[in-house]
Specification:
Elements lengths: L1 E6 L7 H16 L3 E6 L5 H12 L5 H25 L4 E4 L6 E3 L8 E4 L2 H8 L3 E5 L2 E3 L5 E3 L4 H13 L3 E6 L20 E3 H9 L7 H10 L3 E5 L7 E4 L12 E17 L4 H11 L7 E3 L6 E8 L4 H9 L7 E14 L9 H11 L6 E5 L2 E7 L3 H11 L5
Helix pairs in contact: 1-3, 2-3, 5-7, 6-7, 10-11
Amino acid sequence: MLIVQKYGGTSVGSLERIENVAKRVAKAKDEGNDLVVVVSAMSGETNKLIEYAHHFSKTPSKREMDILLSSGERVTASLLAIALQEMGYKAIALTGRRAGILTDDSHTYARIESIKTDVIKNELKKGNIVIVAGFQGINKDGDVTTLGRGGSDLSAVALAGALGADACEIYSDVDGVYTTDPRIEPRAKRLDKISYDEMLELSSLGAKVLQNRSVELAKKMGVKIIAKSSFSDGAGTVISKEDSSMEEVVVSGIALDKNQARVSLRDVVDRPGIAAEIFNILANEQINVDMIIQNASKEGMTNLGFTVPQSEIERAKKAIESFAHDYGSVDYDEDVCKVSIVGVGMKSHSGIAAKAFSVMAENRINIEMISTSEIKISMIISERFGELAVRVLHEAYELDK
């Protein structure tokens, strides 16, 4: 079998942990597998490099930042290769460039365009365990690029798809995907399997197990992901295409995202194109808009509300202020969060939303905004009720059972 393994920052956070990873990789090799291992930077290293850059500049060049930040993964890859060699295994470390990962020109948030697998395949034929520095590639000009936070997940999935790997194992400090964050609800249960769509929703809604872009790519390329812990030997959670048994489970998980802020525009002039103008201004500033609500027009005026990541609220304020001539007033609320119910079975069961709203009412939690799709219901509520909402919804849908 050909297996792609990926180890996150906590899994390689010290020399002892890198040694532990080397033993895991060696065990998989002894079982007769061909291995490509993608590694992240040691935990804390990327943040340290960012601090170094900010010592000299508050707005350092994105190109230079890519060269700087890509070094963290290269350190881990070389150390792991050295550890395996010392254990008697053939291993070679490759940079993203050498591994053939080609991206677009978007420094610090590049997208993978193609992968040339010749080098990796040749090294596998030689019997090598191939260690690849994750999170990075090169653009058409040969410049180093990085893939954004969590980009090593993306590297691993892309390599697994390009190589036709039998599985892509993502190792972190948790032993799979849970019905909700166990730190909020201790009765949360680990899921044996979950669909791409459900995982994509949970990832984009605040769950931190996998980067959402990697799940999106896995679905597109048909890569089976197994989320495991590098600190235990559990079976983990399989993320793959939806099957009939998954529809039997109505709700799979509850997600909480505290990185939310709400913008409310009052007395907006209700004319054709007004929404396009507002959201184009935000798009031009690369501000991601999530939930949107517009009230019915009254006397030529309407109210328009939407949410943005809390980390982008200051840029959103500046963008909105540049549009001051077409609305009466604006309110900003950073003390909100988004709680979401996710489940592929929801699309074929009625009453899911009614139960959620009833539970929130029983616990005197006011819902400020609602967004729905076939497999999710998201609600904006006051941040102080966020964790309570997770617990009562988890109990209401009997996810502890």
